[in-house]
Amino acid sequence: MGLIRSSAALPFAGLALALAVQSPIVALFLGLAVALGQGSTPRYAAPWGSRALQGAIVLLGFGLNAQEVLALGQGTLLLTAGTVLGVLAAGFLLWRLLQPPRTQGALLSAGTAICGGTTIATLAPVLRAKPEDTATCLALVFLMNAVAVLVYPALGTQLALSDMQFGLWAALSIHDTASVLAAAASFSPEALETATVVKLGRTLWLIPLTLVASALTRRRGASPFPPFILFFLAAVMLRTLLPLGPDFLSATALASKTLLLGALFLIGMQIDREAIRTLSPRLWAQGLLLWLLASGAVLTALLLVPGLSGA
Q1: Can you tell me the distance from the alpha carbon of 147 to that of 141, in angstroms, rounded to the nearest whole number?
Q2: Where are the beta strands (DSSP E) in the chain?
Q3: What integer is the mean pLDDT of 80-107?
Q4: What global pTM score does this model have?
Q5: How far is CA 209 from the centre of its chain?
């Protein structure tokens, strides 16, 4: 009886720690540690992980205001579109060249193009990705985010980038929003302001990409779009059209992050030792090369075409 109680208490303790630390990568690896420690995956991990993930994505929609994106200049909008579409195309070419696992390659390419872990988490249920597919891509993205937060401000200073140039570079080539804002804030308040709005415009590309992926991967006779995607779109529309108060937006943002942390913990709990042995170094090569290409291409465009950054 004591062993059963101990086994049941371990996941709850791990989840509580993940929510307290407030770190996506910590949540993922805490779930993995619990799974390896217990040697089996509880039956509740998959369904509740899916529900938490979908809930987090729906609430994320309240943070996306399309009107703010339309206020950006034409040059910035074109650069954002070119970056997203270019990274997706380069990801496909690298996938053909390196041949990593198909679903993992698709998730990583989309995450690099748009919004890192958020994009991966959104597309994972659409593509019916396995837990190890999602976890592997998330781990790689979180690692590159950590490097970017440390390296980008130093490089921006060495290259004498303007505040707007750095804000654009960070917003269009660092994966996740939190890491974009952390890097931009380390550079200057003005860079942070630019990066915040431009990153929002990049994140909105998640909507058409998810709709296309849903339509292409739907099962025969099923709805082309999962219900949570429709709720996500409704949340974006409400955020754009209605004057939602700051308290409501803060509450939905906190709830979204909390659900995402819980979902990542439960995803980690679904990974076993056999899945770890099958991790593909080809995927890691694809992810690193794609990020370097994206970062280098955006930086080159900003340096060679001053009008893109308003210089």
Answers
A1: 10
A2: none
A3: 92
A4: 0.76
A5: 13
Residues 6+ apart with CB under 8 A from 5: none
pLDDT tens figures, 126-180: 888 888 888 888 888 888 888 888 899 999 999 999 998 999 999 999 998 878 8
How far, in Å, are 89, 164, 193 from residue 309 at the CA level? Answer: 24, 6, 14
CB 34, CB 268: distance < 8 Å: yes
* Neighbouring residues of 2: CB distance < 8 A, sequence distance ≥ 6: none
Say yes or no to pLDDT of 64 above 90: no
Measured distance CA(78)–CA(278) in Å, rounded: 39
Residue 88 pLDDT level (bands cut at 50, 70, 90): very high
DSSP for 5-44 reads: HHHHHHHHHHHHHHHHHT-HHHHHHHHHHHHHHHSS--TT
* Tokens found for residue 223: 């709805």
